[in-house]
């Protein structure tokens, strides 16, 4: 690698993007399974806005955070803690978790 600091920003962003893509893959399978059990999607019109928000957030990080910017370890630790909470929600909800709102009539 030629001069300069290691591009940790790129590594962190790549990991976040891969994690989000994996979530989308799991969510799609869960949503299909819920629909197969009679699930009904609510608020589907809002979904593209949610996707756009996430894409815009990642794009803003890529476009506006310098590639070799120093990483604030406190903020990175806070983000990791929030990601752990996110993972806990996904695991707790299991097959009921999706990125969409799919409910099955008569079930909580």
Could you provide a short overview of the structure?
This protein has helices at residues 8-36, 47-64, 73-93; strands at residues 40-42, 101-103. By secondary structure, it is mainly α. The chain starts with 7 loop residues before the first helix and ends in a 5-residue tail after the last strand.
Keywords:
single chain, 108 residues, mainly alpha, two-stranded antiparallel sheet, 3 helices, 2 strands, 6% strand, elongated
Helix count? 3
- Would you tell me the structural class of the helices and strands? mainly alpha
| Mean pLDDT across residues | 92
Order of helices and strands: HEHHE
| Shape annotation | elongated
- Strand tally is 2
> Reading side by side through the largest sheet, how are the strands ordered?
1-2
Radius of gyration using CA atoms only: 17 Å
Name the helicity range: 55-70%
- The residue ranges in which pLDDT falls below 50 over 5 or more consecutive positions are none
CA distance, first residue to last residue: 54 Å
What summary fits the major beta sheet?
A: 2 strands, antiparallel
Strand percentage:
5-15%
Map the helices and strands:
Layout: H1 8-36, E1 40-42, H2 47-64, H3 73-93, E2 101-103
Antiparallel strand pairs: 1-2
Polypeptide structure, described:
This protein has helices at residues 8-36, 47-64, 73-93, and strands at 40-42, 101-103. It is built from 3 helices and 2 strands. The chain has 108 residues and is mainly α. The model has no long low-confidence stretch (mean pLDDT 92). It starts with 7 loop residues before the first helix and ends in a 5-residue tail after the last strand. It has a two-stranded antiparallel sheet. The longest helix is centred in the N-terminal third of the chain and has 29 residues, at 8-36.
